[in-house]
Inverse folding.
């Protein structure tokens, strides 16, 4: 029976391989004719009226790489110099990662031929080993693993992707050899002498199925037109271990590099920055309120402008004032009449205009305008809650992405090295590697709008087995076993000292409102 199943599986693989070969590699057009009847013409495909000059085009691989790099450089400039972009990136970065993610080992007890007590012991060993490695995760010896997560998420926000190399190093004082090297994604590019190689897409060498095989990483920065001699060709995988951790949110089937999330609104941010700068300069000039004096005696005016020393030159009568400082007194020539600058700037439409621009930009980022601009003053409780929940869906999506593509691969490599170092009490690690390395990642807890109601929600979740203690404690940055041991010590101490919690008849602390008690 087993041989028959293997034969059927081999036959199925051959058929699927032949079919996929007919479809070709990504970017090519299939020769299979579409057996479908034609449909009606659509207005969006017309070439008349307002659509006459709308002719989008697809970019070549090299052109797309240059365009993407230009977008990244502009995004870096905006993040460094534009307060709105900087605030948006900082807010999303801290809301997504913040203090980091808390890992919890979740070994599959149904697969492992071990008793539950032994599995729990191995889980505690795994979590302890990862906590040791987290402190020495950075190859530079500066950053905690959570700091690397914060840096990787920021790189995704500003550069559209992150690039991290897992390396094995020997250094005195280290427990583990695994260390992470964070690389600027701009160093990932195609060498100038390999531009015609169709298997290299923007620095990534792929196979016929589109799977990355090698990454071409530039050795130094600030260099152009470098040949392959100035690059390091790094293999994507060495067996089951990743050699390169390259992550980005993919939105196109043939996409191999990441794009900045606010690139559609980049022009809006730039124009708004220029507009605010022009308004600020205009207000500085008009608020100077300099005094302009016109005299019927040009000789006296010129002598006064020269400091009253009687020195006379014709150029004094033709002097032009280009700069205005607060409190300045300017003497004009005969016949000159000053035009007083109006002080009614910015206009009445200034704030609505800025709001429209920021709403479009925040919509591009996928988060509500009030959260992006941090304008909660005019919002009701229900509106603020709805806005925060909407924004949290975006943050939660990014958290899950980073947990799958960055945190879990690091956990797998740490568990493997722990087994090889004898720090994980298990046999047949490679046979049961997926079951042993299974883990969950709990991000930081979102902010509480009404702490009492959310605490009551947690209590109800525990009561009806919707939540468990490990989830609640991990969201607050703690370990449920350590927290419960501490609670038991405190309870024993309070009992010894005959201390009681101040409670009312309904179980609420004294001073709690009736509304919260409901």
């Amino acid at each position: 029976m087993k041989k028959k199943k293997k034969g059927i599986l081999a036959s199925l693989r051959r058929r699927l391989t032949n079919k996929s070969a007919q479809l070709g590699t990504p970017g090519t057009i299939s020769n299979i004719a579409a057996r479908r009847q034609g449909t009606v013409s659509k207005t969006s495909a017309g070439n008349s009226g307002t659509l006459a000059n709308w002719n989008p085009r697809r970019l070549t691989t090299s052109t797309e790489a240059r365009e993407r790099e230009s977008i990244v450089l502009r995004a870096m400039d905006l993040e460094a110099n534009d307060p709105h972009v900087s605030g948006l990136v900082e807010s999303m970065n801290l809301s997504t990662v913040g203090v980091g993610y808390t890992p919890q080992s979740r070994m599959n007890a149904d697969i492992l031929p071990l008793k539950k007590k032994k599995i729990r012991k191995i889980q505690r060993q795994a979590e302890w080993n990862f906590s040791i490695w987290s402190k020495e995760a950075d190859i530079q010896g500066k950053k905690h693993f959570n700091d690397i997560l914060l840096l990787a998420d920021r790189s995704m926000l500003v550069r559209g992707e992150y690039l991290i190399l897992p390396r094995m190093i020997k250094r005195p004082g280290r427990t583990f050899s695994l260390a992470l090297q964070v690389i600027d994604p701009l160093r990932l590019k195609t060498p100038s002498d390999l531009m015609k190689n169709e298997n290299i897409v923007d620095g990534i060498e792929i196979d016929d199925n589109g799977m990355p095989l090698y990454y071409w990483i530039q050795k130094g920065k600030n260099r152009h037109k470098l040949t392959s001699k100035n690059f390091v060709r790094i293999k994507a995988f060495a067996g089951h271990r990743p050699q390169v951790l390259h992550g980005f949110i993919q939105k196109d089937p043939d996409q191999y590099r990441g794009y900045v999330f606010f690139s559609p609104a980049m022009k809006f941010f730039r124009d708004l920055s220029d507009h605010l700068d022009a308004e600020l300069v205009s207000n500085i000039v008009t608020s100077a309120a300099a005094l302009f004096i016109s005299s019927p005696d040009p000789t006296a005016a010129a002598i006064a402008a020269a400091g009253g020393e009687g020195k006379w030159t014709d150029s004094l009568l033709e002097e032009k004032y280009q700069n205005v400082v607060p409190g300045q007194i300017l003497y004009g020539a005969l016949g000159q009449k000053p035009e007083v600058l109006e002080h009614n700037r910015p206009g009445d439409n200034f704030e609505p205009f800025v709001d429209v621009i920021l709403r479009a930009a925040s919509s591009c980022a996928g988060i509500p305008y009030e959260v992006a601009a941090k304008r909660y003053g005019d919002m009701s409780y229900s509106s603020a809650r709805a806005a925060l929940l909407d924004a949290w869906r975006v943050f939660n999506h990014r958290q899950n992405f980073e947990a799958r593509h960055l945190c879990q691969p690091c956990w797998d490599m740490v568990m493997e090295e722990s087994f090889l170092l004898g720090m994980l009490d298990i046999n047949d690690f490679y046979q049961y590697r997926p079951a042993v390395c299974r883990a969950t990642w709990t991000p930081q807890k979102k902010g509480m709008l009404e702490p009492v109601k959310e605490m009551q929600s947690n209590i109800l979740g525990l009561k009806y087995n919707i939540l468990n203690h490990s989830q609640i404690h991990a969201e607050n940055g703690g370990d449920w076993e350590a927290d419960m041991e501490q609670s038991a010590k405190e309870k024993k101490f309070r009992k010894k000292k005959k201390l009681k919690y101040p409670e009312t008849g309904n179980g609420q602390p004294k001073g709690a409102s009736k509304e919260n008690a409901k």
